[in-house]
Structures are given as C-alpha cells and as structure tokens.
C-alpha cells in the first residue's frame, strides 16, 4: 500500500515538474521579447529568499541539537550560506555601485551552499562523532564564507565588474547539478524514513534545479530585471517555508510526546511505590490465614497473584520507551511469565518487525493472555511463541501442546474476546485452532 501511495505521489510530482518546466520555457520566451525591469519585485523576492533560508536554518539547528545527525549539520551549514548569499545579493541590488567584489561574492557563496546541501542529501544517516558540534555547528559555514570572501577580495582587480553570460555558465551548471542530486537523494530518503522535512526538501531542490535550468536556457541580461528563474527560485524557497512549518509542527508534537512520556513514567513510579507495595503486603498477610480456610485463602492468593502480575505489566508498559522493538518487548513479557510459572519457552522472534506504540501494547497483551491461558487452562510446561512475516503480512503465533478444546462448543471467555478485539483493532485478524488432544494455536495476522 505504501509503495502504491508513493507511486501515485511520484507520478503527480513528476507531472507538476513537467508543467513547471514547460511554463518556465514559455515565460522565458516571453521574457526575451517583452521582459522589462522590475528591480523592486526582484529585491523583494531576494529578501524573502534570504529570510526563509535563515529561518529554516534556525529550525534545523534546533533539530540538530536533538538528533546530532551529520545530515542535519551539513544541511544547517548549507542553508546558512545560501541565506547569507541571498542577503548579500539584496545588498547589491540596493547599492548602485558594488564593484567586482559585490557582484562575485553572492554567486560564489551560492555555489558553496548548494554543494553543502548536496553533501547533506548524500550523507548517511549517522551521528556526528563529537557532541561538541552543538556549540560549533555554524563554525564551518562561517569559516567557508570568510575564506570565499577573502579569495574574491584578493582577486577583485582581475575579475570583471559584472559577470557576463559565458562566465555565469559554469556556476549555473554546478548549482543545477547539486540541486538535482539533492532532489533525488532527499526524495529517496523520504520514502524510507518518516521525516516531514525530507519530504519537502526533495521538491524544493527540484524546483531550485529548474530555476538554474531556466537561467541556462534564458540567461538574465540585467541584474535588476525579473526573470522566470527568479520566480522559480522563490517558489523553491516557499517550499522550504512549508518544510519549516512542518518542522515546527513536528517539534511541538515531539514536545507533547515528551510530556506524555514523562507523565507516564511518573505514574509508573507512583504505582510501583504505592499499589504494588500494598498488594504485596496484602498477599503476605493473607498467607497467615491459610490453615483456617485453605480453599478460600488459595483463591484469594491466586487473585492477588493475578493483580500483582497485571500491576507489574502496567508499570512496565507505562515506563517503557516508545521506540523499543516489538521482538524485545515480547521476549521480556513472556520471559517474566516463564520464570513465574516455570514454563519452558520456544521463541522465534523477528527483530526487524516494526509497529507503533498502540500496536505493540496490544500485541504484548495478546501474547501474555495466550501464554497465561496455556498455563492455567492447558496445564502445559512448554509454549511456543513466533513473531514473523508471511505473504499475508506480519503474524504472531502462540502454540501449546496441551489437552486442547473444541472452540465451537466451549464458551468464549472474556480473555478470548479481549484478544479478538485487540487483534481487530490493530487492524488485523484473530484465529484460534484447537481440538481435544491436539493442543491450541492462536494466530494474529496484521
């Protein structure tokens, strides 16, 4: 399903890019014949570009402080350099005379910025080696800009005051290549990672590549005139603005999740220090009345054991991190039952299966209930638990070699009803196979 959705999205995105390319060609031909000077609009667009790039850089810096990913570090530096280049271009549009230094520095910085963004797109999903980068994240970008500025200033006398069309060809080709590579790399990464920022960086870089292509096909003749390439560049930055909005939404969602997780941990501590201790005390006190009424005391002790088991499970679920693998959580949950009831477990768990928090909780409860049923009703000493994949999807199987029963004639207790409801809410299916003398097999597929 996910592949089909991405196929539809890819087709739509490709169609939109073709339409934008065709429109840019048409507008470019119109510019050749009827284009005029629009210095004020050009200045406004460059100011918008600079502000958006620096805003997203600020947000990516906060993201880097949370993730310490090398990709975020390179993306931060690329955005800072691009934002600075656009800000300097705004200054050159305002100033009447800037000379070779002012005319050459923004294009040179733009090359550095696009190279850093392409490097970010190609960077593997790894952590930065040193945590100290959080304090020096902008240092490489600042050093690179100072070095480029020093080189341009040193060569200012040998550079023409205003770059001509042939001189601009190589920078345009280089930035076009970098944006195209970044667009493909970010799009491929977004297909395998749940990251809203990456989903918008790919289209933004694609539109940026179209802007460079427009500049190559229809080179601008005047710096203070408005061309289709300028509009496409601003369109790419507007997509970055959408990415910034999505990143802000994601930040607040993570803040809310962190607050919920902290509240869950607090509740787990309270239950552990309060309810669990009181239940343990009640059980120990009831043990002293075993000689007076053994059957009743045994029933009370059994109920107390079940209450303790359920409370421990609740405490563990509340204090458990949300990113734990399903296989690890299942192993720990059924291992606790194995130690408590003396049951031998045959485990075959696929650690690569990934589910969300609600699904993980439901599957753990189903597995525990199935194992407990095998122990209490089947009186078995060995249970097999499997977690894997097949042609129908992922599956969880709990099987025992007990006496079995006939599901068609036996009353379905609340435990079976609860397992079925949890399985259907995944969404998934619940199936139970059993007959006298054969054992019981519970299968959940989702």
Keywords for this structure?
single chain; 446 residues; alpha+beta; Heat Shock Protein 90; five-stranded mixed β-sheet
Description:
Residues 1-8 have low confidence and may be disordered. The protein has 446 residues and is of the alpha+beta class. Helix 4 packs parallel to helix 6, helix 6 (165-192) runs antiparallel to helix 7 and helix 12 packs antiparallel against helix 13 (414-424). Helices cover 69% and strands 8% of the residues. The chain has two domains: 2-255; 332-446, Histidine kinase-like ATPase, C-terminal domain (Heat Shock Protein 90), CATH 3.30.565. The chain has helices at 2-34, 39-67, 70-94, 99-122, 139-154, 165-192, 196-217, 228-273, 275-287, 294-319, 326-341, 357-376, 414-424; strands at 344-349, 382-390, 393-400, 429-435, 439-445. A five-stranded mixed sheet has the order 1-2-3-5-4, with helices on one face.
Short description:
The protein is an alpha+beta fold. It contains 13 helices and five strands. It has two domains: 2-255; 332-446, Heat Shock Protein 90 (2-Layer Sandwich), CATH 3.30.565.
> What percent of the residues sit in helical stretches (DSSP H or I)?
55-70%
Structural class: alpha+beta
The residue ranges in which pLDDT falls below 50 over 5 or more consecutive positions are 1-8
Order of helices and strands: HHHHHHHHHHHEHEEHEE
- State the major sheet: 5 strands, mixed
Strand proportion: 5-15%
Record field, number of beta strands: 5
Number of domains: 2
Layout of secondary structure:
Layout: H1 2-34, H2 39-67, H3 70-94, H4 99-122, H5 139-154, H6 165-192, H7 196-217, H8 228-273, H9 275-287, H10 294-319, H11 326-341, E1 344-349, H12 357-376, E2 382-390, E3 393-400, H13 414-424, E4 429-435, E5 439-445
């Amino acid at each position: 399903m996910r592949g089909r959705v991405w196929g539809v999205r890819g087709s739509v995105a490709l169609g939109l890019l073709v339409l934008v390319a065709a429109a840019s060609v048409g507008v470019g031909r119109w510019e050749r014949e009827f284009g005029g000077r629009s210095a004020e609009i050009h200045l406004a667009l460059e100011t918008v570009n600079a502000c958006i790039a620096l805003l997203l850089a600020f947000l990516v810096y906060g993201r880097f402080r949370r993730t310490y990913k090398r990709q975020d570090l390179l993306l931060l530096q690329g955005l800072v350099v691009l934002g600075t280049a656009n800000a300097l271009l705004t200054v050159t549009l305002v100033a009447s005379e800037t000379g070779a230094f002012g005319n050459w520095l923004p294009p040179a910085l733009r090359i550095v910025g696009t190279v850093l963004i392409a490097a970010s797109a190609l960077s593997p999903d790894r952590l930065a080696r040193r945590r100290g980068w959080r304090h020096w994240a902008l240092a490489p970008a600042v050093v690179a800009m100072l070095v480029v500025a020093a080189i341009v200033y040193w060569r200012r006398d040998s550079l023409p005051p205003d770059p001509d069309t042939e001189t601009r060809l190589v920078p345009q080709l280089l930035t076009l290549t970098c944006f195209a590579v970044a667009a493909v790399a970010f799009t491929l990464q977004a297909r395998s990672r749940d990251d809203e920022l990456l989903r918008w960086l790919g289209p933004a870089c694609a539109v940026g590549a179209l802007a460079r292509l427009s500049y190559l096909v229809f080179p601008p003749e005047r710096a203070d005139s408005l061309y289709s390439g300028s509009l496409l560049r601003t369109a790419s930055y507007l997509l970055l603005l959408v990415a910034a909005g999505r990143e802000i939404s994601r930040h607040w969602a993570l803040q809310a999740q962190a607050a919920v997780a902290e509240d869950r941990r607090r509740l787990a501590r309270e239950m552990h220090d309060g309810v669990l201790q009181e239940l343990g005390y009640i059980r120990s006190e009831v043990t002293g009345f075993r000689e007076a009424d053994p059957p009743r005391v045994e029933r009370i002790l059994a109920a107390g054991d079940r209450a303790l088991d359920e409370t421990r499970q609740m405490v563990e679920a509340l204090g458990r991190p949300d990113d734990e693998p399903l296989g690890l959580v299942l192993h720990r949950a059924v291992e606790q039952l194995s130690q408590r009831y003396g049951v031998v477990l045959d485990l075959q768990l696929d650690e690569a299966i990934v589910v969300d928090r609600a699904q993980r909780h439901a599957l753990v409860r189903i597995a525990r209930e199935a194992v407990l049923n095998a122990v209490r009703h089947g009186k078995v000493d060995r249970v097999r638990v499997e977690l894997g994949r097949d042609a129908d999807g992922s599956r969880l199987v709990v099987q025992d070699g007990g006496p079995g029963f006939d599901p068609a004639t036996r009353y379905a207790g609340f435990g079976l009803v609860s397992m079925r409801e949890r399985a259907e809410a995944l969404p998934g299916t619940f199936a139970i196979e059993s007959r006298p003398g054969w054992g019981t097999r519970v299968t959940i597929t989702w």
